[in-house]
Amino acid sequence: MHLQNILILTASFYFYSQLHYSFVFYLGGLILVAFLSGLWIRKINSFQKPALILSIVLLSSCLVILKYTNFGIDIVNGMGARFDNLKFLVPVGLSFYTFSTIGYVTDVYRKKIEPEKDLICLGAYISFFPHLLAGPIPAATKHLRQFKQQRVFDPSNIEPAVRKIIWGLFKKMVVADNISISVDYCFARAESLNSISLYLGIVLFSFQIYADFSAYSDIARGVAKLFSIDLFQNFKSPFLSRNPGEFWRRWHTSLTRWLTDYLYKPLGGRSLGKMGSIAVILFIFLFSGLWHGSSINFVLWGLLNGVYYVVYLLCNQIKHYDEAPDKHRWLPSLATLGKILLTFHLITFSRILFKAENLVKAKEYWNSLISNHSFSWPPTFLYAHIHWCLLLLLMEWMQRFRQHPLDVSNNKWIRYTMYGAIVLIVILYHKKLSLQEYYYFRF
């Protein structure tokens, strides 16, 4: 087990150093601080809470300084000051593994886990290369123990692992990278395009960011499975959600879990009464917006989604569904379809703020979307790849009660044929289009 963790740690640091040599110092520093903090918090009998707070401040300091200093400067400059922005190289994945380390020391403080006495083991858990750059964010209570035990290669893991990787490659290279061209075109020419084209652009962006981000998570889970390590399922068909609450339980579930466990519950959550709970919910969404990016766009995006959630909550429409919609139907009922479409469009229109370069560009896009009603059919390339989006949605609807969208048959030859066909499609599209950076690497 110890040798396995040494190999994982070495491979992860080497992998990370290929992006930039300096990144490994940030990662190594956070691992060391988390390791020492866990031992310190458990060792002292008094002042454990101040020790936890100090540990969290130390662990979050790199993220705050590198990611939010210029945002603070912009705010001060907006009040009349004249400070130049600083140039920082922000390590890819810093937001993700910072949250991993904070979660670890908090769980030690809460006595949910014992502090890890093996630095190599903790380092392998935090730096594990499949989830290092863009999640899923691991939970020490569930995932650390997998690095504390001997892992034996299991041949039965090969097919589910390869299936996840193939599906991830399809979503990234065939869906996300192709429609990103149409999305960028729409946002670059918002003032000159009509409402139909701009509506198509923002809908395609919803599919792009979902296909892109969930693709990384699928590939990460597939690679981890080959190491006999199970990671969180980060996406659970979010476009089938019937209200914003359900959407956020299906979208980036590891972040939702982290925000719930380490912010919502400690701040009081439901125990504060209706108004107190609403205030906490809005704060959580504001925090989530800032986690995604240091700009007013992300602040407003987070708050807008918080408002969606609160409105549904006040109308008693935040339903905690135990299963996917319309279990015994081939097609959704009209009521279910209406709820799904409303939720999808609320989330999608908020993403104008998410995608636009700044608030001015977001306003331009929105104003053109609601006012440029001149009818002309969108350029062909804008909808040339929309069939892949529809196929993705159809697969998730048809397979909504299975473990995976590609789990289509008990006959292995049917499954293998389908895997081969998808690989062929990926290869053909890869020849036409170079692989683009994953969208969430910027966060």
Number of H/I helices: 17
Query: What coarse outline follows from CA principal-axis ratios?
Result: globular
Q: Report how far the terminal alpha carbons are from each other.
A: 33 Å
Low-confidence stretches: none
Radius of gyration from CA coordinates: 23 Å
Percentage of residues in DSSP E strands: under 5%
pLDDT averaged residue by residue: 87
* String of helices and strands: HHHHHHHHHHHHHHHHH
Number of strands: 0
Number of domains: 2
Structural class: mainly alpha
Q: Sketch the major β-sheet.
A: none
Helix content: 55-70%
Could you name the key traits of this structure?
2 domains, 17 helices, 443 residues, mainly alpha
Protein described:
By secondary structure, this protein is mainly alpha-helical. It folds into two domains: 2-151, no CATH class; 157-242 and 321-442, no CATH class. It has helices spanning 2-17, 23-43, 48-78, 94-109, 119-127, 129-132, 140-143, 158-188, 195-226, 244-250, 253-264, 273-292, 296-314, 334-355, 359-371, 386-398, 412-432. Helix 1 crosses helix 5 and helix 12 (273-292) packs antiparallel against helix 13.
